[in-house]
Amino acid sequence: MAKEAYTVGPVLSFRGVGGARQWRVSALIGVPRTAKAPALRVEGRACAAPVVLHQTARETFLRYDLSCDMQARERKVEFGPRGGPAWHFTVPAKGAAPRLAYVSCNGFSDPSGMRKLVRPENAVWADLLCNHDRDLRPADYLLDKEQLWHETRTHDEGLQRFHLLLMGGDQIYFDSIWEDIAALKQWVGLARAQQLEFKVSQALEDEIEAYYFGLYSRRWLPPSRAPWAGAQPSLDAADAMARVPTVMMWDDHDIFDGWGSYSPAMQRCELFQTLFRHARRAFWVFQMQHALADLPPLQAIARANVLPQDPQYEGIAWSRQLKRDRLALPLLDGQPGFTSAYRLGPLALVAADLRTERSRTQILGTQAWTALQGWLHGLKGNRPASATGGCRHLIFMSSVPVAHPKLSLAEGLLDTFGQDHVLDSNADDLKDHWSHDDHEGERKRLLETLMQVANEKLLRVSIASGDVHVAAWGNAYRRDIPPTSNWAQIQQFTSSAVVHPSLLGVAERLFLFMLNGTAAQAQPIDVNLSVEMMLFPGHNRYVMPARNWLAFELDAGKAGKLWASWRCETETGFSNHLQAVQPAQG
């Protein structure tokens, strides 16, 4: 089947482990509305008829069930339509920890910024894919010594390196909506009072809806892209999402730049709420891979004695809402957002939704905190030390870094120069950070929650983040606990961006200088708790200004380390940077 028969996809999505042994995977495929749904096969058997997630005037979006049983050994499985093309993904062994890749920022706010790149736009995706699957490498591809480590253990066994692809935010950039829709471009030039009073006509709302649902196809499977059945792979995001089941969580650009960090009046205005509503609906279909009919609207909690600056929504009983969907994501019950959580053998993974309830002074609402803490405390742990089958490592996906330099001076500088035009609105980005003064209380709550679980369950917690267009390593720790009790240390691994340029311009280099200067200072949270940036592994600075991707791989055995390894783009290739998270000690 030619690429042109698909308008988007296939995009693989991980749905969690079903029962004790089912590796649940779905595939999103878009086709022209008048086209017949393709018949897919997986491991030689016919897939069930697809679920229709949504239809627009031009397209039908379908979800296929590619779930496979986990066996005693991991294996590579094939799927696709009869007669090709065919794609492959790897299913881990029953009870084993999956190998994970992590990326963020798959796009750009300003196309002119891409001219700063020395190497092609998709060079980092190409590197990830060549590390993932030997069959995708060009004939002249050369391995470095670090890659050889995985060659004998994975590729020589006929396998792919990664079982899951974690996508930590900005999977798509909707900032272009302000230029591409004429009424929105005019709105930008209005006085603030006029912006707040602006009424959205039905015609404009229809145009906004069509834009959100149409851009995914154009960005995730560009019309200019080579056909799927071509002789050579394109080595881009589409190739990656078709070969590694994804776990996705949105950030601001999946809505539009800075969502959640504008003034309360602006956040509540009719236009912003309309944009958010349709971004949420499109996110549900494309990134969550759920039927649009199953998405309930957000219901505001009306309380007369509560300040209106922070959105408060009724919780959603997701298990009841999605009870008819056998491929429903493991969304936490009782939250209004999309936080999902997974048990993966000795690993646990939380993909936290930090956008649904965000404001300048709030990251997560009360019900989201309750749902998150309830799931974490329900994890099976390793106390007493003789316990078996417990979670040994928890990876917490936070779209914005928890450990990051405090940059109040930089925020003021960027505001002075004009936050809408300097550094892709980095002033808004700084207001997003957990380290911002307005979010410091919630950062303390998060770290205390994670450390309490680490202590109770005797496990290690690591945080994976993106957003900031650099690679970085940080650490949160309790000063009143000896280092030998390493559950009280939480390492932060930041990987950004897979496409967006890093800090390259003159103003950005000034910003980078400020980042490194501020990063050298520890951040006391209270008398016992501190956050500190660490020198980046194999680098003499705290942040690495390069496009990059990140891998998480757990050694086998109860005493196994969790390895975090970055691949950072250079002018001529890629460099390797490794760090290890030791098993928990009490």
Outline the secondary-structure elements.
Blueprint lengths: L7 E11 L3 E11 L7 E3 L2 E2 L4 E5 L3 E7 L2 E2 L5 E7 L5 E5 L8 E4 L19 H10 L12 H9 L10 E4 L9 H4 L1 H7 L3 H6 L4 H19 L16 H5 L4 E3 L15 H5 L1 H17 L31 H4 L18 E5 L2 E5 L14 H12 L15 E6 L9 H10 L8 H7 L7 H18 L2 E6 L5 E8 L10 E6 L11 H14 L3 E2 L4 E6 L8 E2 L3 E7 L7 E8 L4 E8 L5
Parallel strand pairs: 10-11, 11-12, 14-15, 15-16, 16-18
Antiparallel strand pairs: 1-2, 2-6, 2-7, 3-4, 3-8, 5-6, 8-9, 10-22, 13-14, 17-18, 17-20, 17-21, 19-20, 22-23, 23-24
Helix pairs in contact: 6-9, 12-13
GO cellular component, one term: membrane
Pfam family, one: PhoD_2
Protein name: PhoD-like phosphatase domain-containing protein
For this entry, give a set of tags:
single chain, 586 residues, alpha+beta, 9-stranded mixed beta sheet, 6-stranded mixed beta sheet, 15 helices, globular, PhoD_2-like
Please characterize this protein's 3D structure.
Helix 6 runs parallel beside helix 9 and helix 12 runs antiparallel to helix 13. 48% of the residues are buried. The chain has one domain. It is an alpha+beta fold and 586 residues long. It has 15 helices and 24 strands. Strands 13, 14, 15, 16, 17, 18, 19, 20 and 21 form a 9-stranded mixed β-sheet that branches. It starts with 7 loop residues before the first strand and ends in a 5-residue tail after the last strand. About 1% of the residues have low confidence. It is 25% helix and 23% strand. It is globular.
Please identify the structural class as seen in this structure.
alpha+beta
How many DSSP-defined strands?
24
Major sheet: 9 strands, mixed
Q: Helical amount among residues, as a percent range? A: 25-40%
Distance between the termini: 56 Å
- Total of helices: 15
